[in-house]
């Protein structure tokens, strides 16, 4: 019997039909294997996590034990250099900043409980619960950061801050953060909570060269015993570690008070103080103690600015600057800085002290036009290191803001030039809600932009901004780096520098530098680069240059502002032996009896090389503290410092940009228009003194029943006969000269009135004699037509003719352009008014008013040619 092979079945089975083969069987899902794999992965993850944790903890202990002496060790000073000019010039050391001896340790037993609570509430509310690192706080911070799409909250504990402060730099890397956490774990293992808090309070930097809580209490409040501190003082100190420079009550009392309020709210929310205590402490105004003043240092204003910029632009805090031995290279011009400090130390350049001995204050900033580098600055007279720097202080700029808010936007629009005609008449704007006045209460009628800027008229720039729209002024200022209040500053007062928040000398110098640099604006900066003690670069300035206005606008503005320092301008005291442009500014007092004096005075100006802003005034203005010297004082300071600082620098001129046309000067205005009715000719004879060669004249007329004056004729000569008048009617005339070559208009003339006798009688009812009836009645005023015909300055005249009028500039009207014919028999369908050549040439120079009063006082006595 044969044994079955492995290819044969030992059982009887039916043969399956061919062609119906089944595929491979599907494997069933094995839940056991999944669960087993998960358990194994979890165990491995736990093992890895524990291993990492152990490594991190061991690393922290190693770092702590190796560098424990750093808590008591003074570190290397940081050096600041001025980058001297010249190819081979070596940087000059100008300052050394370091941790001085102003550090006093205090035992935690001598720290009042509420002072400890202020720091815990502000910096680490779960300080007593965590083990050096608060994972709950880190998670909360991450959630908030994700929600807000930015880093809005940190998760560092007091222990981590101590670890970073003692052992690490502020380098932003994951490795550094991990190291910080490992050291924090080690610190928490080695020390008690009170010991950690004691070391933290003795170690941290509080600004103003104060290290530790005890030194800070002395500097800011003059108190050696911490138990003497009041709640508001404790909260003020707890507010400082976040940003010592920013929240210093000495340097920024308003920001300090605001931050103090945040700390008090945290203390109240966490039950450390009552609501009544919070409200009382929040309301206190800070007054610095006499001992708070520190000694004056060379270049103190500039050095303080460098430290602020390092923190703001490069995220290097002040404590790190004072301990890490950095080398900081700056844009300072040491010659300019020394001259500035010498000038500010000379009382002859400033107003005399107030009756209580208080000195008037001042600040100045100089910017390099081409680079935005800060050449020199001073934050005040007798400025103290880490004190209140007035280069940041926002004050009302007065007329120095007119180029930014009014004249700049007009030039940028392309509709105006320096010779465009503006209206300086007394006007109420905004439906009568705003009625500015010129400083001397005198108006000037039609004036060129050049004259308005040179003599600092007030009505003209307000009129101009009203034509342009307030939004144009706000946007122009924004382009120059000055952000106005978008709602509260949306009014015409900004044309005169009436701002909600004011502007700082630093902002004004930066903005004006665009005028000097063909419309390009550089980011102002003091730091060029920062290296460590071994020369490795850790930060560097990256140029930021932007074309913010047209080159033509900048050039035309320079032409305007050059006129300010010339004879007859308001800034003549700023002129010296090189091209200078600039603008004065002052803001008046609203204190009864002394309204003629000022609150703030300015001069902002530039040469082709540098721009400078000078402010002068009292920090707090009242009836005993105000400015009496006017803006001439700031102009004189500008001249003194700029002229000496630039001495030896080759003189250059302002450059006219390519393809920018030279603005065309407008014709001089007519001031002696006279109107005479000639009975025998049944016409009105208009005469005036010619104002120059190649000048034609637009003659306007308004009848007593007409709303607006209408163009009567364009005449090449200074004599016109109007034979198209009605009997018994009264007419008003004025003349606008314009260049025959460019069609640029000049100012409107005075208004001359004439009454045409009714029929063949004179106004008194008598018969006329054979001699002409003369009624020259030039309207008293400033050259403005009372009806105020609408005409856009800086553009070609737009007459409002009668139907069929087709007069073009420089041409003569067709017969159909004549006004309606007179009803007089002899005047029916009379001829058009015709220009008549003068019998004698005029001298082109009209007399001044006989009584010597300016046009703005409504007195005009014209001279008959």
Automatic annotation (TrEMBL):
Gene3D superfamilies to which the protein is assigned, alphabetical: Biosynthetic peptidoglycan transglycosylase-like, DD-peptidase/beta-lactamase superfamily, Immunoglobulins
Q: Where is the composition biased (Basic residues)?
A: 17-26
Report the catalytic activity: [GlcNAc-(1->4)-Mur2Ac(oyl-L-Ala-gamma-D-Glu-L-Lys-D-Ala-D-Ala)](n)-di-trans,octa-cis-undecaprenyl diphosphate + beta-D-GlcNAc-(1->4)-Mur2Ac(oyl-L-Ala-gamma-D-Glu-L-Lys-D-Ala-D-Ala)-di-trans,octa-cis-undecaprenyl diphosphate = [GlcNAc-(1->4)-Mur2Ac(oyl-L-Ala-gamma-D-Glu-L-Lys-D-Ala-D-Ala)](n+1)-di-trans,octa-cis-undecaprenyl diphosphate + di-trans,octa-cis-undecaprenyl diphosphate + H(+); Preferential cleavage: (Ac)2-L-Lys-D-Ala-|-D-Ala. Also transpeptidation of peptidyl-alanyl moieties that are N-acyl substituents of D-alanine
SUPFAM superfamilies per UniProt: beta-lactamase/transpeptidase-like, Fibronectin type III, Lysozyme-like
Q: Where is the composition biased (Basic and acidic residues)?
A: 847-856
Q: Which domain of life is it from?
A: Bacteria
Keyword annotations from UniProtKB, A to Z: Carboxypeptidase, Cell membrane, Cell shape, Cell wall biogenesis/degradation, Glycosyltransferase, Hydrolase, Membrane, Multifunctional enzyme, Peptidoglycan synthesis, Protease, Transferase, Transmembrane, Transmembrane helix
Q: Which residue stretches belong to region Disordered?
A: 1-26, 749-865
- Which PROSITE patterns does UniProt cross-reference here? FN3 (PS50853)
**What's a Pfam family this protein contains?**
Transpeptidase
What are the Low complexity biased-composition ranges?
A: 1-16, 765-795, 803-831
Q: Which residues form the Fibronectin type-III domain?
A: 666-759
Task: Write down the InterPro entries for this protein, in alphabetical order.
Answer: Beta-lactam/transpept-like, FN3_dom, FN3_sf, Glyco_trans_51, Glycosyltr_51/Transpeptidase, Ig-like_fold, Lysozyme-like_dom_sf, PBP_transglycosylase
Transmembrane parts of this sequence = 34-58
Its name, as the record gives it, is: PBP1A family penicillin-binding protein
């Amino acid at each position: 019997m044969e044994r079955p092979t492995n290819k044969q079945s030992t059982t009887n089975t039916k043969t399956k039909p061919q062609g119906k083969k089944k595929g491979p069987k599907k494997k069933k899902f094995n839940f056991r294997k999944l669960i087993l794999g998960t358990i194994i992965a979890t165990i491995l993850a736990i093992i890895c996590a524990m291993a990492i944790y152990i490594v991190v903890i061991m690393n922290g202990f190693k770092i702590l034990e190796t560098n424990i002496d750093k808590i008591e060790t003074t570190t290397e000073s940081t050096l600041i250099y001025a980058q001297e000019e010249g190819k081979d010039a070596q940087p000059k050391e100008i300052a050394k900043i370091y941790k001085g001896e102003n550090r006093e340790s205090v035992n935690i037993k001598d720290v009042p409980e509420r002072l400890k609570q202020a720091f815990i509430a502000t910096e680490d509310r779960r300080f007593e619960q965590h083990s050096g690192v608060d994972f709950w706080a880190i998670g909360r911070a991450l959630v908030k950061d994700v929600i807000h799409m930015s880093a809005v909250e940190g998760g560092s504990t007091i222990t981590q801050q101590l670890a970073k402060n003692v052992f690490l730099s502020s380098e932003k890397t994951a490795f550094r953060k991990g190291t910080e956490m490992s050291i924090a774990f080690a610190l928490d293992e080695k020390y008690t909570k009170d010991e950690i808090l004691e070391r933290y309070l003795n170690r941290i930097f509080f600004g103003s060269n104060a290290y530790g809580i005890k030194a800070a209490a002395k500097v800011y409040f003059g108190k050696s015993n911490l138990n003497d501190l009041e709640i508001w003082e404790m909260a003020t100190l707890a507010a400082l570690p976040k940003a010592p420079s920013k929240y210093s009550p000495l340097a920024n009392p308003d920001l300090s008070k605001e931050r103090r309020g945040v700390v008090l709210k945290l203390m109240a929310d966490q039950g450390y103080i009552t609501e009544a205590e919070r409200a009382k402490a929040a309301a206190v105004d800070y007054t610095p103690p006499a001992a708070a003043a520190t000694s004056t240092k060379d270049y103190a204003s500039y050095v303080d600015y460098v430290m602020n910029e390092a923190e703001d632009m490069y995220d290097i805090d002040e404590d790190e600057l004072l301990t890490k031995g950095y080398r900081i290279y700056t844009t300072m011009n040491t010659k300019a800085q020394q001259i500035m400090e010498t000038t500010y130390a000379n009382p002859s350049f400033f107003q005399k002290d107030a009756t209580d001995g208080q000195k008037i204050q001042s600040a100045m900033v100089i910017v390099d036009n081409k680079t935005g580098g800060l050449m020199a600055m001073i934050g005040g007279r007798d400025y103290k290191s880490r004190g209140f720097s007035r280069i940041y202080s926002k004050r009302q700029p007065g007329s120095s803001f007119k180029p930014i808010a009014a004249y700049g936007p007009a030039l940028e629009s392309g509709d105006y030039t320096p010779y465009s005609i503006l209206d300086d008449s007394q006007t109420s704007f905004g439906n009568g809600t705003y009625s500015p006045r010129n400083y001397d209460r005198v108006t000037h009628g039609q004036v060129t932009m050049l004259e308005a800027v040179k003599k600092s008229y007030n009505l003209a720039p307000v009129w101009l901004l009203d034509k342009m729209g307030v939004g144009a002024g706000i946007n122009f200022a924004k382009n120059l780096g000055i952000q106005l209040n978008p709602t509260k500053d949306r009014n015409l007062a900004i044309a005169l520098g009436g701002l909600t928040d004011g502007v700082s000398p630093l902002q004004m110098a930066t903005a004006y530098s665009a005028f000097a640099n063909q419309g390009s604006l550089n980011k102002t900066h003091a730091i060029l680069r920062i290296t460590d003690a071994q020369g490795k670069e850790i930060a560097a300035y990256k140029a930021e240059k932007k074309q913010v206005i047209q080159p033509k606008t900048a050039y035309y503005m320079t032409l305007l502002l050059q006129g300010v320092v010339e004879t007859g301008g308001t800034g003549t005291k700023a002129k010296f032996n090189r091209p200078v442009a600039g603008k004065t500014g002052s803001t008046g007092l609203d204190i009864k009896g002394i309204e003629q004096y000022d609150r703030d005075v300015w001069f902002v100006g530039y040469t082709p090389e540098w721009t400078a802003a000078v402010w002068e005034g009292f920090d707090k203005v009242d009836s005993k503290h105000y400015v009496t010297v006017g803006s001439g004082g700031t102009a004189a300071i500008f001249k003194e410092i700029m002229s000496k600082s630039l001495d030896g620098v080759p003189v250059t001129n302002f450059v006219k940009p390519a393809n920018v046309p030279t603005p065309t000067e407008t014709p001089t205005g007519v001031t002696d228009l006279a109107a005479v009715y000639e009975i025998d000719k049944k016409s009105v004879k208009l005469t005036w003194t010619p104002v120059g060669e190649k000048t034609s004249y637009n003659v306007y007329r308004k009848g007593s029943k007409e709303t607006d004056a209408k163009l009567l004729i364009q005449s090449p000569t200074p004599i016109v006969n109007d034979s198209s008048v009605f009997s018994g009617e009264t007419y008003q005339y004025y003349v606008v000269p314009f260049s025959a070559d460019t069609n640029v208009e000049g100012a409107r003339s005075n208004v001359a009135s004439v009454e045409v006798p009714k029929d063949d009688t004179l106004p008194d009812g008598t018969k006329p004699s054979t001699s002409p009836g003369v009624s020259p009645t030039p309207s008293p005023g400033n050259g403005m037509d009372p009806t105020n015909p609408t005409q856009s300055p800086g553009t070609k005249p737009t007459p409002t003719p009668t139907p069929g009028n087709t007069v073009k500039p420089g041409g003569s009207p067709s017969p159909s352009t004549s006004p309606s014919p007179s009803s007089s028999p002899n005047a029916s369908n009379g001829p058009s008014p015709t220009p008549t050549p003068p019998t004698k040439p005029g001298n082109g120079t009209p007399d001044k008013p006989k009584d010597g009063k300016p046009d703005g006082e409504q007195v005009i006595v014209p001279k008959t040619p």
